[in-house]
Amino acid sequence: MRPQPTSRMCFVCGRENPCGLKLKFTEDPENRVVRAEFTLPEVYQGYPGIAHGGIIAAILDEVSGRAIMLYTTHDTFMATLRLTVRYRRPTPVGTPLVAVGWVEQIGGAGAKVAGQIRLPDGTVTAEGEALLAAAPEEFRARWEAERPYWKVE
Questions:
Q1: 151 neighbors 106 (Cβ within 8 angstroms)
Q2: Which of 91, 101, 140, 146 could form a disulfide with 125 if both were Cys (CB 3.0 to 4.6 A apart)?
Q3: Is the Cβ–Cβ distance between 101 and 64 less than 8 Å?
């Protein structure tokens, strides 16, 4: 497993975001997946004891989008055009979870990616599919100032 870089202020992976999840992602090149192991605290719940669906969607967006780095470089960024989430069962807070993402198809300037959130026994609580495209030029221009902070810690 190889670690992937994280940023400063991303809600999902940002090391310095005081409200963020601070997830750390690793690559499993042999199985062609990206993973993050984490436990959501109560501050991210919707219903009591259950993670908010928006938090689950954000994690699925991040883990599936990061899977593209298995086929490119860690400096290749794509933007999500569409994200479809299927909530299979409530995702508990205070419980160890695993997010897994992979690439289903790469073609032209885009990709189709997918991901799941799993309980310790492997039960899938949520899954998502996303359509990605090359990040717009204005995004890439703003990214240059952040590039020094995009690193593995």
A1: no
A2: 91
A3: yes
Q: How far apart are CA 42 and CA 107, in angstroms?
A: 40
Q: Name the DSSP class of 52.
A: -
Prediction pTM value: 0.95
Q: Which residues of 78-90 are buried (b: 16+ CB within 10 A; e: fewer)?
A: bebeebebeeeee
The CATH class for the domain spanning 2-145 reads: alpha beta
Q: Cα(53)–Cα(60) distance, rounded to whole angstroms?
A: 11
Using CA atoms, how far residue 18 sits from 9, 10, 21, 79, 94, in Å, is: 8, 10, 9, 24, 19
C-alpha radius of gyration, the chain, whole number: 15
Q: Kindly report, residue by residue over 69-87, the tens digit of the pLDDT.
A: 999 877 777 899 999 999 9
Both tokens of 21, joined, read 């999840």
- Note the helical H segments in the chain: 53-66, 137-146
